[in-house]
Amino acid sequence: MELLKERIRNDGKVKEGNVLKVDSFLNHQMDINLFGEIGKEFKRRFSDAEVTKILTIEASGIGIACVAAQYFNVPVVFAKKTQTKNIAGETYTSQVESFTHGKVYDIIVAKEFLKPEDKVLIIDDFLANGAALLGLSKLVKDSKATLVGAGIVIEKGFQRGGETVRNAGVRVESLAIVDAMDENTGTITFR
């Protein structure tokens, strides 16, 4: 998706430790017009999937998932990173290690929101080591719903997450795959 790649080139910042900061338009301040184009592209790529639910993880994926859901006309379910009083009843849980935060989370979805008849599309902002995607995939598998695929805004192609998730049998559609980043020059190259 050229529009997204151009935005990453112009406004993305490469930081130490293979961190790509896109918080000026994607995951802190959100460019809703760009999100609209992202949602349309996910709908185009998964038009054959008969999606009934979109699943994401808090917090950065929620905005993107909500805008994309408008094009599919389906609800969004987001996995919470902490058990709260308002999650009553039985839950599906999985453990996820966050690349960005260097922390392990138990992610939780109430069983009432993922049913065996659902066809679930996972949407997330980044794919780095694949842990979030595999954790979300486990929630779908545990619910006996059908995982139709994962829509990723930015994949770090130089990390093993994409390969790991694809090898696990998940259809992954990434809108921008970063092949390399140079923190000294700020250069970002795409596949």
UniProtKB/TrEMBL annotation:
5-phospho-alpha-D-ribose 1-diphosphate binds at A128, N129, G130, A131, A132. The keyword Transferase applies. Residues 47-157 form the Phosphoribosyltransferase domain. Its main location: cytoplasm. It is found in: Cytoplasm. One of its GO terms (biological process) is purine ribonucleoside salvage. The keyword Repeat does not apply. Xanthine binds at L20, N27, K156. Pathway: Purine metabolism; XMP biosynthesis via salvage pathway; XMP from xanthine: step 1/1. Keywords: Cytoplasm, Glycosyltransferase, Purine salvage, Transferase. It catalyses: XMP + diphosphate = xanthine + 5-phospho-alpha-D-ribose 1-diphosphate. Coiled coil: none annotated. InterPro entries: PRTase-like, PRTase_dom, Pur/Pyrimidine_PRTase, Xanthine_PRibTrfase. It comes from the Bacteria. Its EC number is 2.4.2.22. GO terms for cellular component: cytoplasm. Transmembrane segments: none annotated. Signal peptide: none annotated. Belongs to the purine/pyrimidine phosphoribosyltransferase family. Xpt subfamily. NCBIfam families: PRK09219.1, XPRTase. Homodimer. HAMAP family: XPRTase. Converts the preformed base xanthine, a product of nucleic acid breakdown, to xanthosine 5'-monophosphate (XMP), so it can be reused for RNA or DNA synthesis. This is Xanthine phosphoribosyltransferase. It comes from Anaeromicropila populeti.
